[in-house]
Amino acid sequence: MRFALRAANTVAALVAAGAAAAQPAPDANARHVRSMAATCAACHGTDGAAVAGEAMPALAGYPKPALVAQLKAFRDGTREATVMHQIARGYTDDEIDAIATYFATRATTARGRSR
To answer: pLDDT for 38-56, tens place per residue?
Structure first.
């Protein structure tokens, strides 16, 4: 009886450890999202804070639903672009959602720079 109980506890612990290992750590996931968002910096500014007066729009503080729609339109080819259709094509729906969440939560100041 004790052996069966120990065996069951060991199996349960291994299953729980395996499930925990399969989930990326919150910090690792946050770093991954930030690195995806960083690919936008060359054109849209660091953390999506475009330089005032530049042609590229700021992404910081952009409403999430609108950004998701725009990125999917670029990806699906329903919105014309020079390079965005090629960039967006590399992202899954989940990645687009994560990028849009990241930028939607970036605050902007009056100068158009994120805080």
So the answer is: 999 999 998 999 888 888 8
Distance of CA 62 to the CA centre of its chain: 14
Q: Give the number of other Cβ atoms within 10 Å of residue 69's Cβ.
A: 15
The answer to whether the CB of 68 falls within 8 A of the CB of 59 is no
Domains belonging to the chain, first-starting first, are 26-104 (1.10.760.10)
Tell me the CA distances in angstroms from 77 to 31, 55, 70, 71, 101, one per residue in order: 29, 21, 10, 10, 22
Q: First and final CA of the chain: distance in angstroms?
A: 60
Closest to 101 measured CA to CA, from 5, 49, 27, 34: 34
The amino acid sitting at 102 is: Y
